[in-house]
Amino acid sequence: MENISNLFQKILKSKNPEELNDFLIKLSEDPSNEYLNFIDHFINNLEIQILEKIKLNLIFVLGEIGKIVSMDEKYLEFLSETYYTSDRWIRKEIIQAFHKISENTALANKTIELVGYALNDDYIPIKISAQKVLLSLRVLPNKILKNIFHTLNSKESEVINYSSKIFEKHFKDTNQLFTSLKESENFKILKPQGVRTLLLICFKSLINLEALREMILGSDWPDTSKTVYLKEIKTYERILLKNL
To answer: Helix-strand-coil percent breakdown of the chain, rounded to 5?
Structure first.
């Protein structure tokens, strides 16, 4: 810590991004909660133009510290505020930082909602990083269900792989799944391919598949939506029967 403190004193008034980034990289090599004082200094005192040039490494350090200690909410708020004004590289680092921080700090619903929002990102590494965060949670807020269902429409195999893990963990029975589909009319989100993927992930037996069919038939869903789901269920049923 003494050497790090001495280094900090040397770069305390520096406006050279390269020097500041080198210092942050040094912090990340052996993270400690004591380094949060340095992070506070950078966040609160650096000129915006300089902060922008060290933001990526600063966020990485926050994530590394978050892996070993509980983090104050102010750091999560900083990450959240930064997310909406940053490029894809920094957005990815922020979502990864949330994942690391969640190991020792319970994420507030507003943070989880931001992670859910990240599922809509066109940049696949951000989407996958967000899925990893959601997979680590014990409970998923209803507000992000729409975005979770939306991932089932993806053609990216890795996205579908993590979607499968999320659904297997958080949607363990047919009643819960159907309730989630009804929530805010989430059933309208899935394209035929998405319905197909949902069935493959969540239904391994004909009994549960029949239960879903009955729930859909008895629902007040629009006929067009019912038709899409019932057609895919019928096709999938034939596949299950063939494999008996």
So the answer is: 75, 0, 25
Q: How far apart are CA 222 and CA 224, in angstroms?
A: 5
Closest CA to 72 of 105, 39, 113: 105
Cα(2)–Cα(203) distance, integer angstroms: 58
Q: Which of 85, 143, 142, 80 is nearest to 107 (CA)?
A: 80
Structure tokens at 21: 């980034």
Asked if residues 100 and 135 have their Cβ atoms less than 8 Å apart, the reply is: no
Rounded to 5 degrees, what are φ and ψ at 67?
A: -70, -20
- Domain extents for the chain? 171-244
d(CA 34, CA 213): 57
Q: pTM of this prediction?
A: 0.93
The count of C-alpha atoms lying within 13 angstroms of the C-alpha of 231, restricted to the half-sphere facing its C-beta, is 10
Find out whether 177 and 209 touch, Cβ atoms under 8 Å: no
Instruction: Look up residue 70 and give its amino acid.
Output: S
Q: Hey, what amino acid is at 208?
A: N
pLDDT along the chain (244 residues), means of 10: 84 93 96 96 96 98 97 97 96 98 95 97 97 95 96 97 96 94 96 97 92 97 97 95 82
